[in-house]
Prior knowledge:
This protein is mostly helical. The protein has helices at residues 5-12, 21-35, 38-56, 62-88, 96-106, 108-112, 125-137, 145-160, 165-175. The chain has two domains: 5-116, no CATH class; 143-187, no CATH class.
Amino acid sequence: xxxxxxxxxxFRDGITELGCRVHARRKFFEQYQASGSALAKEALAHxxxxxxxxxxxxxxxxxxxxxxxxxxxxxxxxxxxxxxVEQRKTTVGQSNTAKAMDYxxxxxxxxxRYVEDGRYPINNNPVENAIRPIALGCKNWLCxxxxxxxxMSLLATTKANGLDPHAWLTDVLTRLPTTRDxxxxxxxxxxxxxxxxxxx
Length: 200
């Protein structure tokens, strides 16, 4: 999760923040590649164990995955946090290793939240894959601005929820002019919220 102010505003409004383990891992990986840091190597081992635990939970339902994470991932997370706090005491303040170690601490609650619900992913790779076409096209769309990004995000959300983007957009554009502000959430492309207008 990046420090984009728009996200923080959503979190204040009750949207659940999920941190990305890949971003936390990248800091340590880059430091290990650059210097062969033993601390970075040990941090990578902790993170690798979390991913191994996730692999063991592949293919099971959300309830069973939650139980699996609570039993296996939670102890690893606690051990990693305790190790990081102890090692940070002897790490130079502004070194790259220190910055790598500080990253997960500042975002710890969001990074550890995936063990609270079996539906939550350990990282945001699916989201990043969904928005990659947008990111690649940014240079060509500079004049399109934020509205294009908003629409593309909604369409990606529609696909992620197994809905037909064309059907959703057609229905929403038809209903939007007569939808009251208090009911606007019923148009969002989320399972259980948007329901297509009955035919006939």
